[in-house]
Amino acid sequence: xxxxxxxxxxxxxxxxxxxxxxxxxxxxxxxxxxxxxxxxxxxxxxxxxxxxxxxxxxxxxxxxxxxxxxxxxxxxxxxxxxxxxxxxxxxxxxxxxxxxxxxxxxxxxxxxxxxxxxxxxxxxxxxxxxxxxxxxxxxxxxxxxxxxxxxxxxxxxxxxxxxxxxxxxxxxxxxxxxxxxxxxxxxxxxxxxxxxxxxxxxxxxxxxxxxxxxxxxxxxxxxxxxxxxxxxxxxxxxxxxxxxxxxxxxxxxxxxxxxxxxxxxxxxxxxxxxxxxxxxxxxxxxxxxxxxxxxxxxxxxxxxxxxxxxxx
Length: 312
Ligand SMILES: *Cc1c(COP(=O)(O)O)cnc(C)c1O
Ligand code: SF4
Description:
Bound molecules: pyridoxal-5'-phosphate, iron/sulfur cluster
Shape: globular
Order of helices and strands: HHEEEHEHEHHEHEHEHEEEEEH
Strand content: 15-25%
Number of helices: 10
Helix content: 25-40%
Largest sheet: 10 strands, mixed
Distance between the termini: 56 Å
Strand order of the largest sheet: 1-2-3-4-5-6-7-8-9-10
Radius of gyration: 20 Å
Structural class: alpha/beta
């Protein structure tokens, strides 16, 4: 993966929360980055990762407006070979028709909004498949280049999404790691996305020196909630070889996640998960609010009180 950044993000590089996500200081050229989630093994058809029985993920391309240094798919990002062609799309559609128990499709990549023409072609086919009940798109375009949301090809795709959202539930999943990413331009772009017939969700990765503290994440989730975005997942950073400097201590993350639960509305609080290596999948990280050994429960002031007392 090569360093790539948008002119918009360049203006924000004085902020360490942005700089640390995008500027390459430690990436060693020719490192063979690993595939910690075993996605390649589950790629049943070019671009289609079928890992969970009833839902599947499509990598529309390996292209994004900017390259995040911590990307789980750093081994692929920027490679032009990832872009789906018409034959690939046809093969995906045939696989989905042959496997009607797959009812939930996630378009990812790469960033599906960064290649709007390919995504439009794919979406026009997917939405016609009766067994596909749910559509989702994961994107960072609004955060990396907010003005691009209004560019003609993206706008046409967003109009198609709006129309599709009237037929089937459609989720737009924005990847946001820091409240510093929510500038006035980004807020405008998100407010435009909110006018579409979609549900806006967000996902966040715990990153050292970007968001590994309670105050930052509390501010992020309050802001997102105020903007009508529902925080979905908060991930422990995947164990890609070469990206160890981003990983936060799991116990520290658990303490932060616990405090978020105690202070945020349930709607504003994401699920803290870890994507287990070797293809097992996402599992919730247990937050021990209840200490069975001592018969105590954590109350909202973070004091321990007796379980019996709490439940009566
Ligand atoms: C995360 C993921 C999904 C979707 O999982 P949900 O828990 O339904 O959001 C589907 N396929 C793959 C390969 C994934 O990594
Ligand atoms: S936008 Fe998403 S897919 Fe692209 S480099 Fe960043 S994290 Fe990876």
